What we know:
The protein is mainly α. The protein contains four helices and no strands.
Amino acid sequence: AEECPKxxxxxAELLQEGICAEVHLMNCNDEVSHKKQRAxxxxxxxxxxxxxxxxxxxxxAESKAAWDFLGxxxxxxxxxxxxxxxxxxxEKGLESSEGDD
Length: 101
């Protein structure tokens, strides 16, 4: 559903009332609605970021579990994320060469 980027009202509802989206956009100046819409967008952005973080953690756990299941062989290190690889290096007493590409 398309909605006004300023106030968040659904354009389909406006069209049923006989108001086209362009007219609404030119006259949309309700600051209270604008503030609510900004807060709504910020909350959605934070939820999306939290979901991405949770998926990254889940993917890391899955790849680590696969590596563990397959025997933790050096030729399968590609299964680990960069963070997991650094953790394994620390556990084995190895140092990483940060910044060397």
